[in-house]
Amino acid sequence: MIRLYTDSSPNGFKATIALEELGLPYTLHHIRIEAGEHRQPAFLALNPHGRIPVITDEETGITLFESAAILLYLAEKAGRLLPMDPKARWEAIQWLQFHAASVGPILGQRVHFELFAKTPMPQAIARYQRLTDEAFATLDGRLSGRPFLAGDDYSIADIATFGWTHIADICGFRFDRHVNLSRWHERVAGRPAVQRGIALPVPATGP
Q1: CA distance 26 to 99
Q2: In sequence order, what are the residues at sequence separation of 6 or more whose Cβ sits closer than 8 angstroms to the Cβ of residue 134?
Q3: 124 and 72 within one domain
Q4: Which CATH number do you get for residue 22?
Q5: What does pTM read for this prediction?
């Protein structure tokens, strides 16, 4: 049995979507970040950095944090959502890394500076708006003529990226002018497992 410790956030939704897509049995533990539960000793014993999601796999004795690592682990465990063909496999891993190194950090900083910072910082807001659009443009180019980021097959790269485009959409960070990205987003959003995943542990709301 897999135990998932998570909250409603873009990184958390990646894990819930993947588990729902793969049909792996799991128990969900809601870590309420607003209540400071991610800073309690019991959770810090699982992830000393104090961030969600975390999984523990009782079958293997493995505990993992960092959403990209969790996605890779779950895909390998189930034998799905990571292409077998070497070229497509490495394309999926490459775009998973693009999400982890660029899309997630950029959008996370934009959310902070534009929506939650107590003192407005116009320079920072403008910077992360520009970087967001550049990341969206990169994704849009990649999705030109392809249904998914690794090509024909839906993969963990799509799940990871959707976790952030879902939140971007909720926050009003529009990407409508990026036609390929918008079509891809709607395609992924329509999947039943994705719809279940973004409702766990509770749906995200706007700022």
Answers
A1: 25
A2: none
A3: no
A4: 3.40.30.10
A5: 0.97
CA-CA distances (angstroms) from residue 80 to 68, 74, 96, 111, 154?
15, 8, 15, 32, 10
How confident is the model over 41-69, as pLDDT tens digits?
999 999 999 999 999 999 999 999 999 99
Q: What is the mean pLDDT of the chain?
A: 97
pLDDT for 129-183, tens place per residue?
Answer: 999 999 999 999 999 999 999 999 999 999 999 999 999 999 999 999 999 999 9
Contact yes or no for 180/148 (Cβ under 8 A): no
- Write the CB contacts of 91 (distance below 8 Å, at least 6 apart in sequence): 83, 149, 150, 151, 157
Q: Looking at the 3D structure of the chain, how many domains does it have? A: 2
Residue 197: inside a domain: no
Give 15's contacts (C-beta < 8 A, 6+ positions apart): 4, 6, 53, 55, 67, 70, 71, 74
Q: Are strands 26-30 and 62-65 parallel, antiparallel or unpaired?
A: unpaired
Boundary (domain end) residue, out of 80, 100, 118: 80
Domain residues for the domain of 11 are 2-80
Instruction: Examine the domain organization and report whether 15 and 91 are in the same domain.
Output: no
Residue 196 lies in a domain: no
DSSP sequence for 100-123: IIIIHHHHHHHHIIIII-SS--HH
Tokens 């693009």 locate to: 98
Is 206 inside a domain boundary? Answer: no
Same domain, 28 and 58: yes
